[in-house]
Amino acid sequence: MTELQTAGGAWGTRLCMVSIYLTAIGAILALAAGPGYRAGIIGVGAGLLTYVAVSLAMLFATIAASVGLAMTKGTADSASQAITWVAFFAALLVTVNNVVWLNRARTAPPIHDITTDLNQPPEFVAILPLRSDAPNPAEYAGDETADLQRDAYPDVETIVVLDPAGIVFDSALAVAGELGWEIVDSNAQAGRIEATDTTAYFGFKDDVVIRIGSEGPQTRIDVRSKSRVGVGDVGTNANRIRRFRERLLEVIGS
């Protein structure tokens, strides 16, 4: 083995170790970011900044591991290679996920209040006390938000079916529970269901109100989903309404 190969192997070993340490640090910070915010230990700003640190650690870990593995190919012991490969794939998975979310953030409008009825959005009633301390007020965001939604999510519109409103109400309530939403209030007489959905990692609270009413032989279902915090939602509220619509139509068979 030449002196150059030996030096390259040494540097490769160092890079492999760096990738392992960075991945471990990133994993620890990941536990501090989302779960820390959910537990009330840190605020939303600190949580998001911590996750930025996670992202950077995992990105550099991916680069260090890939270069290190290439430089130590055929020279490093199998155990260190195996650990480095684990670090590489773990860091790569997080990095790819971040790229996907960054792309969604780049293409999604900076809004967090999505509704199927832009002219007369369903109003929150029972949820109002739960949003009393929320940075985002319960009132609809207004015409500018409506215009941005029309351009970004033209498919988010009123759901119209031929089933009786009573049957639709029961089905909508069942679907909301099936999707994991916490039911805050269900008022069959008013045709209104209110619920809260909690995001998986950070535990952000988004509120949903469903309005169900008859119009001639048809039943109209309008849904509104709004985040309590944040300027943009990276398409989360629109996707929530889409999932509800898809599942509701499956349940009622329309």
Summarize this entry quickly.
By secondary structure, the chain is α+β, with helices and mostly antiparallel strands. Helices cover about 55% and strands about 15% of the residues.
Features:
254 residues; alpha+beta; 2 domains; 6-stranded antiparallel β-sheet; 6 helices; 53% helix; elongated
Characterize the structure shown:
The chain is of the alpha+beta class and 254 residues long. The protein has 2 domains: 3-107; 113-252, Alpha-D-Glucose-1,6-Bisphosphate, Chain A, domain 4 (2-Layer Sandwich). The chain is built from 6 helices and 6 strands; from the N terminus they run αααβαβαββββα. Strands 1, 2, 3, 4, 5 and 6 form a 6-stranded antiparallel β-sheet that branches. A hairpin with a 4-residue loop joins strand 3 and strand 4 (192-198). The longest helix has 36 residues, at 3-38.
CATH architecture of the largest domain: 2-Layer Sandwich
Number of helices, where a helix is a run of at least 4 consecutive DSSP H or I residues: 6
Average pLDDT: 92
Task: Specify the biggest β-sheet.
Answer: 6 strands, antiparallel
Instruction: Indicate the structural class.
Output: alpha+beta
* Structural domain count: 2
Strand content: 15-25%
Would you give the CATH topology of the largest domain?
Answer: Alpha-D-Glucose-1,6-Bisphosphate, Chain A, domain 4
Low-confidence segments = 3-7
Give the overall silhouette.
Answer: elongated
Distance between the termini: 71 Å
- The whole-angstrom Rg is 24 Å
H/E series, N to C? Answer: HHHEHEHEEEEH
Helix content: 40-55%
| Beta strand count | 6
**CATH class bucket of the largest domain:** Alpha Beta
